[in-house]
Amino acid sequence: MIKVLFICHGNICRSTMAQYVLQDMVNNQGIADRFYIDSAATSYEEIGNGVHPGTRNKLKSEGIQCGNHRARHMEKSDYNEFDYIIGMDSANIRNIGRIVGNDRDGKVYKLLHFAGEERDIADPWYTGNFDATYDDVLKGCTALLNEILDTEKFTKEN
User: Fold this and answer.
1) Where is the Phosphotyrosine protein phosphatase I domain positioned along the sequence (predicted)?
2) Under a CB-based contact definition with an 8 Å cutoff, are residues 76 and 103 in contact?
């Protein structure tokens, strides 16, 4: 099973959007049983809160089912539980490092890294632009899934 953890500051906008976008992709490809996808926050500000209405509305407009995820804090133990730990921006990556320590297994990436870009995904909490965030999340998740499907580990599990 491939385990993916998406990370953002509060776990109510970008990371949950990525969680549900990737889940929709694997559902549509009939490979959902080979994945465990979750999301978490690097801060404690939104813990227990549900998905932001802007994220929920954007996913609905794209025909993507949004579940009842509640914001949770990333824990040090998550490093050992997940194969990919994906931050949305440079601050997330720094904060992931503070939580888990050294990325000894090379699991931590920014989402757009998989699309050949190292830029941040803007936080719609501040920008209000859920469309732009969705476009970047979709681009990153598409590239991430392609990368995973090309890995030897995934192929061997067929």
Assistant:
1) 2-147
2) no
One of 13, 14, 56, 141 is an active-site residue; which one?
14
**What's the full length of the chain, in residues?**
158
Using 70 as the pLDDT threshold, list the residues of the chain that sit under it: 152-158
Rounded to two decimals, the pTM is 0.95
Has 14 been annotated as catalytic? yes
Contact 19, 39 (CB under 8 A): yes
What is the predicted pLDDT for the residue at 154? 66
CA gap 135, 116 in Å, rounded = 15
pLDDT confidence of residue 96: 98
Token pair recorded at residue 79: 């490093």
Catalytic option among 78, 89, 123, 136: 123
User: Quick one: pLDDT at residue 151?
Assistant: 83
Spans of all domains in the chain: 2-156
CATH of domain 2-156: 3.40.50.2300
